[in-house]
Amino acid sequence: PGGAVRISGPFLKAFDGKMGLAVGKDGVGIPVSGLLGETGTIIFTFMDKGVKPENSLAARFLFTLRGNGRESVFFYGLPGSEDLFFAFKLYPDTNSLKSLRPIERDRWYQAACTWDGSTVRFFLDGILQGEMQQPYAPTFPETSKLYFGPFIDGAIDPAPWGENSYLIKGFQLYARALPPQNFMALAGVTAP
Prior knowledge:
mainly beta, 13 strands
C-alpha cells in the first residue's frame, strides 16, 4: 500500500506520440487486497482505438475489479455504442452509469470513479457523468484482483475474443474517496 505498481506488457504508441499499455486478449491482473476498501477512488487515462471486425467481445472491458463474491467494479464499452459505461454492482444487478457524450476514437480521456460509503460517482475528463447510491460496502480479500482488458466470468461467453482495442495509462488507486477537485485539476478542468 502506498507504493507504485509497475505493469509490463505490450505498449503501443498513439498517433500523438504518447505510449500506452495495449489492453488486449491476454488481460493483466494485479492483486488489490489492502489497496482499496469500503471507500475508494480509481483514476486512469484511456484511448479507444475502435473495434476490429474480428472482435467477438460482448462488451469491451477497460478493467474489472473483482471484490468478495459477486462484488464488481468496471468500465466498459458495448457493441454499437460510442459511450463509456461504468458499473459498481453485485451480480446479477444490471445498474450502470453512462458517459454524457460519445467517446471519440484516437483521443485520450481521463476517467474516474469514487465511492464514499453512500454514493458512487463516475467522472469523465473531470466532469461528473452520473452518480448512484452505493449498493454495498466492498471488501477485497487476498484473492481480489484488478484485471485489465477482457475478463472472463459467468457473464461473458468464453468464445475467442479478438482484441479489446483500448489503450490505458496513468492508472491510480486510492483507499479513500478523493474530492472531485483532485481529478478535475488532473484533467485541466476548473470548478464552477
